[in-house]
Design brief:
Elements: E1 13-16, E2 25-32, E3 37-40, E4 45-50, E5 60-65, E6 67-69, E7 73-77
Antiparallel strand pairs: 1-2, 1-7, 2-3, 3-6, 4-5
């Protein structure tokens, strides 16, 4: 089993260098190495509709972070 190497890890502070969110900075919440993507806190927020459940009887629309390709971010500060 080989591990896929990335230049950033969870908890690192990064800056988006290309695309619609260029210049935005945030902390990495999750790295998806098989897809070469990262989730960055507060960057590329997408709206997702959810069905009514017991936890949310009304259902509704929630905002959550969407993935960005790992090549579009650069490391600003290494996390702990």
């Amino acid at each position: 089993m080989s591990k896929i190497k990335t230049h950033v890890n969870k908890g690192d502070r990064v800056e988006v260098i290309t695309g619609a969110h260029k210049g935005a900075q945030g902390t990495i919440l999750q790295v998806l190495p098989k897809k070469n993507q990262v989730l960055i806190e507060g960057v590329r927020l997408i709206k997702k509709t959810i069905r009514p459940t017991q936890e949310r009887p009304q259902g509704g629309i929630i905002e959550k972070e969407g993935p960005l390709h790992i090549s579009n971010v650069k490391l600003v500060e290494k996390g702990k």
